[in-house]
Each structure stands twice: as C-alpha cells, then as structure tokens.
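Sample pair:
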Amino acid sequence: MPISDFIDQFRPKVKARLGRRWMYILTPEGKKKVEEDSGGGANWQVLSYLDDEAPCTMRDIAQGAHLEEKRAKEVVRKLTDSGYVKHIERD
C-alpha cells in the first residue's frame, strides 16, 4: 500500500478532531426542534444560531451562541449524536 493511501485512511479522523474542515448545519429534525422549543440553555442557543446563520464553523457557533469553544464542541457533539445537527466538509 502506498504511503499516501495509508495517510488518507486517517485524514478524515484528523479533520474531525481538529474541527477546521467542518461546517455545521441543522438537520430537518433540528429545524423542527428550534421551531417547537423557544427555551434557553446552551442547546437552544446553538440550535437557534445555526437556524439563523448556518453553515457555521465551530468558532462561529461558539461566538454566536456566547459559549466557550470547549462548551460549544460538547453541545454540538451532543446535538449531532441526537440527529439535530450535522457536519459537512468545508470547500
């Protein structure tokens, strides 16, 4: 196996870990959640921000939702696992 193929196997994991290559958007379920829930909290802040501004980088989300970047990553990960947010590769 050429070394470039070997490296390519790990490249997506590195991109996801670094968060530099991903943009985040709402799924249809996330859009519905924003429309149904007008509550507060970090989850709603992130969902609401993405509803208005997506696609966004993690840094955009943290700044727009007024969260520390570490907290924004935790919230986005939870929302992604719940099916409300998904990531797309940045151009």
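Helices lie at 3-18, 28-36, 41-53, 58-64, 69-81.
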